[in-house]
Amino acid sequence: MKKFFVFANDLVIGRVFLKLRHRIAIIIDRGDYEVACSQEAHAHYGDKFTQTDAFLYFIYGALSEIFNEI
Question: Residue 62 in contact with residue 32, Cβ under 8 Å?
Answer without folding.
Answer: no
